[in-house]
Amino acid sequence: MTETEIRQTAEQIAERFSEQADVSVDDVEERLQNLVEEYKVPMDEARRSVTSHFAKETGVSRDELGSEGSENATVAQIDTPEEWLTVDVKVAELWEPSSDSIAQTGLVGDETGTIKFTSWAKSDVPTLEEGATYRLQNVVTDEFQGRMSVKLNSSTEVEEIDAEIEVGEQEIEVEGALVAVQSGSGLIKRCPEDDCTRVLQNGRCSEHGEVEGEFDMRVKGVLDDGNETYDVLLDREATERVTGIEMEEAKQEAMDALDTSVVTDRIKSLLVGRYFRVEGPRVGRYVLGDDVEEVDETPDADALLMEARSA
Ligand SMILES: [Zn+2]
């Protein structure tokens, strides 16, 4: 975390108070710095903690606070609750609200996927039309039972935009030749912090720094169905099943060779050229291969595989 990032975050926090109270950027920065650098609190958490500290100190309630500078995000990027974001989305479905406190609820989406949205009756948000496309500025993310959603609130700005958005399907099934196994496949280590699970690079988590990682296995592959290529991501279970390599065995191999790339290489030689049907949710550019099985080759995919090999 750089000094500039801390300063910028401090400015954003102070700005949220600017209409109600006088909060100095320096005071905010000092507190943030202390949490982030001294106590290694992740930035998101530090931001929340410092914001509520100054809310208490100034007597400004959360509702009165201005919104945070909200970043643009795609639906697939939404993975953390309590973030303020801007999304360009199409209204895919409207549902019957389950209570009077909800003005509207349904699904919005972009090319990367769909997400539930809710707007509260008391927030007075403009009504969204099914099939229309909007820029929603300052929505806040939420998580319930592991599923993310966005909430439209009184600081949300709704603007209808003239954009062609094809809403990404949630579940897809692809069948084709596995033409590549990408780096980052095989034995990996993940951050052990709660709800983090980021893949470590040289023993470091991009959010939590140096940590004692936990082993995991996966395949990041490219599946070609003859028309299109898909990035498929297989989790440990699927990886063990299609490769026949148990994680313990992979760990032993990597330890003997003092190198995890032996596992990646072996997975490559085992999988490339075989045909699979992969079924699962599409998240961003990845199809999460919850369900994967080997299939007989199809002539189309075979021709493409030849091409891929000679390329
Ligand atoms: Zn982490």
Which key features would you list for this structure?
311 residues, alpha+beta, OB fold (Dihydrolipoamide Acetyltransferase, E2P), five-stranded mixed barrel, binds zinc ion
In short:
This protein has 311 residues and is of the alpha+beta class.
Description of the molecule:
With 311 residues, the chain is of the alpha+beta class. 28% of the residues lie in helices and 34% in strands. It has 7 helices and 16 strands. The radius of gyration is 23 Å and the shape is flat. The chain starts with a helix and ends with a helix. Zinc ion binds at residues 191, 193, 196, 198, 205, 207-208. Zinc ion binds next to loops.
Count the helices. How many?
Answer: 7
Straight-line distance between termini = 42 Å
Instruction: Please indicate the percent range of residues in DSSP E strands (runs of 2 or more).
Output: 25-35%
CATH class of the largest domain: Mainly Beta
The tally of strands reads: 16
Oligomeric form = single chain
Radius of gyration: 23 Å
Parts with pLDDT < 50 across at least 5 consecutive residues = none
Keywords: DNA-binding
Region (Disordered): 50-73
Protein name: Replication factor A
InterPro entries: NA-bd_OB-fold, OB_Ssb-like, SOSS-B
